[in-house]
From TrEMBL:
<comment type="similarity">
    <text>Belongs to the steroid 5-alpha reductase family.</text>
</comment>
<dbReference type="InterPro" id="IPR001104">
    <property type="entry name" value="3-oxo-5_a-steroid_4-DH_C"/>
</dbReference>
<dbReference type="Pfam" id="PF02544">
    <property type="entry name" value="Steroid_dh"/>
</dbReference>
<dbReference type="GO" id="GO:0016627">
    <property type="term" value="F:oxidoreductase activity, acting on the CH-CH group of donors"/>
</dbReference>
<feature type="transmembrane region" description="Helical">
    <location>
        <begin position="160"/>
        <end position="180"/>
    </location>
</feature>
<keyword id="KW-1133">Transmembrane helix</keyword>
<keyword id="KW-0472">Membrane</keyword>
<dbReference type="GO" id="GO:0016020">
    <property type="term" value="C:membrane"/>
</dbReference>
<dbReference type="GO" id="GO:0006629">
    <property type="term" value="P:lipid metabolic process"/>
</dbReference>
<feature type="transmembrane region" description="Helical">
    <location>
        <begin position="127"/>
        <end position="148"/>
    </location>
</feature>
<protein>
    <recommendedName>
        <fullName>3-oxo-5-alpha-steroid 4-dehydrogenase C-terminal domain-containing protein</fullName>
    </recommendedName>
</protein>
<dbReference type="InterPro" id="IPR039357">
    <property type="entry name" value="SRD5A/TECR"/>
</dbReference>
<feature type="transmembrane region" description="Helical">
    <location>
        <begin position="67"/>
        <end position="88"/>
    </location>
</feature>
<feature type="domain" description="3-oxo-5-alpha-steroid 4-dehydrogenase C-terminal">
    <location>
        <begin position="144"/>
        <end position="268"/>
    </location>
</feature>
<feature type="transmembrane region" description="Helical">
    <location>
        <begin position="214"/>
        <end position="237"/>
    </location>
</feature>
<feature type="transmembrane region" description="Helical">
    <location>
        <begin position="94"/>
        <end position="115"/>
    </location>
</feature>
<keyword id="KW-0812">Transmembrane</keyword>
Amino acid sequence: MTISLFSFPSPPSLFANAMSIFNLLALITSGYMELIGKNKQYAKFCDNDTGSNKPKAKEKLKLPSRIGMLVFYTPSFLVGLASFTFFPHQDCRFLMVISVLTIHFFKRILEVLFVHKFTGSMMLKDAITIGLSYGVSTATMIYAQYLSQECPQPAFDLKYIGLVMFVIGITGNFYHHYILSSLRKKGDREYKIPKGGLFDVVICPHYMFEIVEFIGVCCICQTGCTFCFTLGTMFLLMGRSYATRKWYVSKFGCKFGKDVKALIPYLF
């Protein structure tokens, strides 16, 4: 079969296969919810929900944004870190997989601590939901990769192509996160239209490079589990970027460039 040219066979694990499908469907659903305006309540979208008649009760369910973001990424980082010692018989590809996943989440933690400037809060339930989702997805991808070590290798080895794409993606993602952080001076709480880098053509180039990064991870892994996660992540970030562009248009009106797309330059 053609798929065997590029991917390992499905692992002999009902759990890994079921979680792959569940992650895909959950991420696609989340992307659709972002698309129709039912956004996860963090960053600029945290205060969009005005339907509650109990603001004080709602306030108790919020976290400072910096703490919430650490809840997002720390479980997955710890999963990746533990995998270096928890799984025996690590081949080169498996070491690459757990390395890039651990590096990805460690980089996000460092950005939360030292790069991003936070002024708001986020819903506690969203922080926990996203953190658990990332952690379980990371563990599932690593477990599926571990099981694949005994399977026949794909005919086309994409792991080094994937490594190049991962480096390009993580570098571009960091660069545009740095641009976003530089927009705010000390004590500044207002959002501004970002400029520089690829912000002149898309409002979410950091999401675009994150997709490149995870396509790289997918090429390193070459498993159906990681393909499902990457495809789902693409749908999620498409929905989030569409909602982000809509938010900027509603806030800045004609000041926001009509030719600036959401995610893909000149297309979407």
